[in-house]
Amino acid sequence: MVADSRIVWLPVAAIAICQPAQATVYLTVEQAQRLMFGDGELTPVPLALSATDAATVERETGTRYYPGALRAWKAPDGYFFADAVVGKHDLISYAVALGLDGRIRQVEILEYREAYGGAIRGAGWRRQFTGRSHADPVQIGRDIQNISGATLSCQHVTDGIRRLLAIYAIAIAGH
Amino acid sequence: MKTTITACSALLLCGVLGSAAQAADATVADVEAKLEQQILQMQQQLEAMKSQLEQLKAQNAALAAQQQQQAAQAQVAAAAAPPAAAGVSPDLSLWGYGEIYYMHPTSEAANTQFDLARAVFGIGYRFDDRTVFNSEFEVEHAIASADDRGEFEVEQFYVDRQLAEWANLKLGLFLMPFGLLNEHHEPTSYYGVQRNFVETLVIPSTWREGGVGLHGNTRVGLDWDLGVTTGLNLGDWNPNPEDPLYRTAFDLEASGVAPMQATHQELQFAKTQNLAQYVSINYTGIPGLLAGAAVSTGKAAVATAPPGLPDQRVTLWEGHARWTPGAADLSAVYAQGRISNTAAYNLVNAGGSNPMPSRFLGYYLQGAYTVWQREGYRLSPFVRWERYDMGADFEGIAPGFTPVPTGLASDGKPWPQPHDRVWTLGANFYFDPHVVLKADYQHFDVNTDFTRIDLGLGLSF
Questions:
Q1: Which helix (H) or strand (E) holds B33?
Q2: Contacts of A43 in chain B (CB under 8 A)
Q3: Nearest chain A Cα distance for residue B336, angstroms
Q4: What is the mean pLDDT of residues A41-65?
Q5: Which residues are within 8 A (CB) of A101 and not within 5 positions of it... i.e. 6 or more apart?
Q6: Using a CB-CB distance cutoff of 8 angstroms, which residues of chain B are in contact with residue A26?
Q7: Which residues of A touch B184 (CB under 8 A)?
Q8: Can you give the residue ranges of every domain in chain A?
Q9: For B128, nearest residue in chain A (alpha carbons)
Q10: Which candidate in B57, B59, B68 is best for mutational testing of the A interface (most A CBs within 10 A)?
Q11: What does the pLDDT look like over A134-152, one tens digit per residue?
């Protein structure tokens, strides 16, 4: 009998806080571009990696390269990248700003769809990437700390950023 | 006459020269005008070409962006639905994990076993941006039939609905947010061939209950989860088995003898006269650090004590921490459970070989270090010390009896003790982040014949 009254309050609370919200998109690509580069003009940079470059990226990063997921823009003072990786079951979209020196200035999570593991949105975790470049390991357990409970999200976003840095170094800065 | 001719000639010359000069003036003006016109035309042409060029540039940029976007969309679709699942909705997700154990008790070679302990398949479906369904189906010990020891079970089956950026609602059968392992129990996530004893015998992983929960995370790194779930059915407790329920460490983990293992209901005709509540918090605001605690409490799902005696209540609380600075991975868990009013139950079942404990607990410390890592390969040795006690306190033990029978069991050996201190030394070798080979040596201080060498293969995708 007591149990009945206990179970009632949760859905009630749930309805009370239920509000229209754009569920999982924290930033659009355009918002991230403005956040990272202000009003600076951004020009799309086509990324067409040769088979040799793609193989180099895969070898150097220990990840697989699929053409197309990564998009790049040139800004007056750097580069803007938008990418997506699979977290545990769902896609995580994120954006990275690089300075002209190829070092990461900022990482933002654009969209996180999983019900759990959202802790990677925390500024503390994302800040670990600041200043890193293709010359750094950018690996969980080496220069990037994991978040327990969000292991796969951390792992896959870190892999994506390591690959992105390699693509920048090989296909953009190297040409 | 000569003068006249001369004058005429002079006049004529002047006239000719004059008209020639006039003619010349007219020609220059014409040329200038033509040139101006031509320049103007060229300017116009240049402007037109410039504008065409701008248009072409814009078209080119748009085309490049479009191509990238199309490629990105193709990639997103490919990532969401791998080629094997071509034709299947991108909203559907499939995953799985499993593990195989080889266990060799060092003093009882006859008890060596090789077991496909778990094969688990997950199916998820995203209904919309805010609503997702997750489920996991598990076959334990390779075959599930009436004649075999294996089980087929639904491990998770819930709908998660995002209510706001900071809060989600979950409904169904879900994992309880306790300890380090219960919610992250894939073999690639933990050290050692088998799960640790604390998070098997005290926190009964894989512990799930049916109910409703609210959970969310905050920007400062504080995750929270609370809800109302099915409770424990103490009526499932077996107070008087004729023979020991386990004879090896593997039996101990696999036979469900621990207080909460024996009484959780797994949403199979679950008794719900009384429900339980839980709350958990976790802090992950500092990269590499996780610290958290959780508590669950509720009256026994149905009354087991004789009428007129107070209801029984089961409470479990735990605290956990994990710190992963660089290549090191340090973790600790403490968990303790209490069952109230066990005296009446034990007096009714006086002399039983398995009285109901009023308190059970366990804790461990574990350290691992990645000594070698290259291109997906990783070698991480570890050491763990743990203590578990499935019967830390008993009430209502009849005079002349002990919680564990003192004589020999029917197999001629002493009854095993429900508590121990265990050292585990071993290593996880990953040849891909999703595939791991494991080896360890476990030393038991009390039940010394449980000491064993284990080998294992684990995978998750």
A1: helix B2-80
A2: 61
A3: 22
A4: 90
A5: A133
A6: 165
A7: 148-149, 151
A8: 19-173
A9: A23
A10: B68
A11: 999 999 888 999 888 888 8
Is the minimum CB–CB distance between A18 and chain B shorter than 8 Å? Answer: yes
What per-residue confidence (pLDDT) applies to B181?
Answer: 96
Average pLDDT over residues A9-13: 56
pLDDT above 60: residue A86: yes
pLDDT along chain B (461 residues), means of 10: 47 48 64 83 83 74 60 47 55 94 94 95 92 95 90 96 92 98 95 97 97 92 95 92 93 93 94 95 92 96 71 96 93 98 90 95 98 89 98 94 92 95 98 94 97 97 91
Q: What is the interface pTM, i.e. ipTM, of the complex?
A: 0.71
Q: Which of B76, B211, B219 faces A69 most closely, judged by CB atoms?
A: B76
Lowest-confidence segment of A4-8, A54-58, B218-222, B327-331 by average pLDDT: A4-8
By the CB < 8 Å criterion, does B326 face chain A? yes
Question: What residues contact residue B342 under an 8 Å CB cut-off, 6+ apart?
Answer: B312, B355, B356, B357, B358, B394, B395, B396
Cβ-based contacts of A144 with chain B (< 8 Å)? 287
Would you state the structure tokens that stand for residue B416, as one six-digit string? 């095993």
CA distance B233 to chain A (A): 15
Taking the model in full, what pTM does it have?
0.79
Rounded Cα distance between B317 and B337, Å, is 6
Burial class of residue A34 (count of CB atoms within 10 Å of its CB; 0-12, 13-18, 19+): middle
Which among B170, B177, B154 has a CA at the least distance from the CA of B268?
A: B154
**What is the architecture of the domain spanning B94-460?**
Beta Barrel (2.40)
**Mutation site, A2, A66, A89, interface B, largest B CB count within 10 A:** A89
Q: List, in order, residues 6 or more apart from B253 with CB less than 8 Å away.
A: B194, B195, B197, B200, B201
- The predicted pLDDT at position B283 comes to 94
Query: DSSP 3-state assignment of B69?
Result: helix
Residue A124 has its nearest CB partner, among B164, B167, B221, at B221
3 state DSSP class of B90: coil
Q: Which residues of A touch B67 (CB under 8 A)?
A: 46
